[in-house]
């Protein structure tokens, strides 16, 4: 989850599910947008440590 950092298992979030609600913070997420945010945050972390 891009909001609270909660990680979902493959059982909780099958590939066919495009929209889901975080069981931890209850935020509604779109899986593609959520993935993009996670990648962006990771890239930001990598780039700022160079
Ligand atoms: Zn969450």
Q: Which key terms come to mind for this protein?
A:
alpha+beta; 1 helix; binds zinc ion; two-stranded antiparallel sheet; 2 strands
Explain what the structure shows.
With 50 residues, this protein is of the alpha+beta class. The chain has one helix at residues 31-48, and strands spanning 19-21, 28-30. Strands 1-2 form a two-stranded antiparallel ribbon. A hairpin with a 6-residue loop joins strand 1 and strand 2. The chain starts with 18 loop residues before the first strand and ends with a helix. The mean pLDDT is 89. Residues 1, 3-4, 6, 22, 24-25, 27 line the site of zinc ion.
- SSE pattern, N- to C-terminal: EEH
- Count the DSSP helices: 1
Describe the largest sheet: 2 strands, antiparallel
How many distinct folded domains? 1
| Low-pLDDT ranges | none
Helix content: 25-40%
Percentage of residues in DSSP E strands: 5-15%
Secondary-structure-derived class:
alpha+beta
The tally of strands reads 2
Distance between the termini: 26 Å
Taking all Cα atoms into account, the compactness measure Rg is 12 Å
Strand order of the largest sheet: 1-2
Q: Roughly what is the average pLDDT, rounded to an integer?
A: 89
Structure ligands? zinc ion
- Based on Cα principal axes, name the global outline: elongated
Topology:
Blueprint: E1 19-21, E2 28-30, H1 31-48
This protein binds zinc ion (ZN).
Zinc ion binds at residues 1, 3-4, 6, 22, 24-25, 27.
